[in-house]
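Let us practice reading a record.
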Amino acid sequence: MATMNNHGNNRQVTAVPPTNSSKQAAPQPKTVDTQSVLKRLQSELMHLMMSDESGISAFPEEDNIFIWKGTISGSKETVFEGTEYKLSLSFPNDYPFKPPKVKFETGCFHPNVDVYGTICLDILQNYPDFDTKSPWRTKHKFTSKHPSSSTLEQSRR
């Protein structure tokens, strides 16, 4: 797999989805043009900036659109009210075929977050569950599979 430097050079990246059965024919690798990935990230950033979603923000680092810093504010009338959680997001070069790595930089006491700030959810490890067309669909898939995570979801509102 090719890597990309911080200057946005146009290189091809290959993503190979896993197979569920050894009896299936080997899938054809998906080729991702890094310019497409850059456009996708820019589009998602613009969508986030234009949305009326309060209590959540994220921006790329100055020199690397693949690394973002974000903030989630705790929801009102919860134990998280008044707390801001800092996050780091690292998007792979073959995004959206693989999900970003997300880590809490601020300590967070939650059953799905380990002591290092790593979010421990199958959807982030098993990327076929990650919806390449819409991260919001991924959110809905996640909440339907993990109803006990409502506290984390409420903290995003």
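A brief commentary: The longest strand covers residues 64-73.
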